[in-house]
Design a protein that fits this description.
By secondary structure, this protein is of the alpha+beta class. The chain contains four helices and nine strands. The chain has helices spanning 48-60, 125-142, 156-167, 173-182; strands at 3-15, 18-26, 35-36, 39-41, 68-75, 85-94, 107-113, 187-195, 201-207. The longest helix has 18 residues, at 125-142.
Length: 225
Amino acid sequence: MTLNVTVDLVLLTIRRSALQVLLIRRGIPPHQGEWALPGGFVRDHEDLDDAARRELREETGLDPHAGHLEQLATYGTPGRDPRGRVVTIAYLALLPDLPAPVAGSDAAGADWRSPDEISSLAFDHDRILADGLERARAKLEYTPLATAFCPPEFTVAELREVYETVWRTRLDPRNFHRKVTSAEGFIEPTGDTAIRDRGRPAQLYRRGPAKLLHPPLLRGGAQAR
């Protein structure tokens, strides 16, 4: 039995104040014409992480180091791919606002879609997407990865919008500001301000050195408004 290995990407970004995932319309069998997560076969002598970075670069045209990329899980249920025994290693990528995608050579199209609008994906990509969304929502509780959706410098209000968008809830602005500014090493002021939508200057921040949030910003403990 020949075992083939692929990588698939759950690539999330926030565009027009909405959480969106990158999908491609398959241009070749199997599942030709259906929507799927971007990905492909791992090349000979290619490391898994390198394959994921290559796919990310090919699908977005961006430096894979511009955001966050981590291994999500491995999926190997027999029959998941009609081409044979195929195991896929899924990756979760979180990046700032991205431009319109360009379909690769073997894709008939590419588009950003809201997860709430997706009814069915090829292969077992519905499961992979669901796992990726839950991983992203959970990691925002105890890591500073929400900043991966932000530009290098951002306001607390813009960071709060990330949490509200990913968690699908509304948060109390004052309570949120207190929590994120008191979490050691989460964000740090740049010393600059910027004029935002309402025409009032807002302090700018950058991501701090923390790897974990202490205390964590729990979904259940976040006070909704």
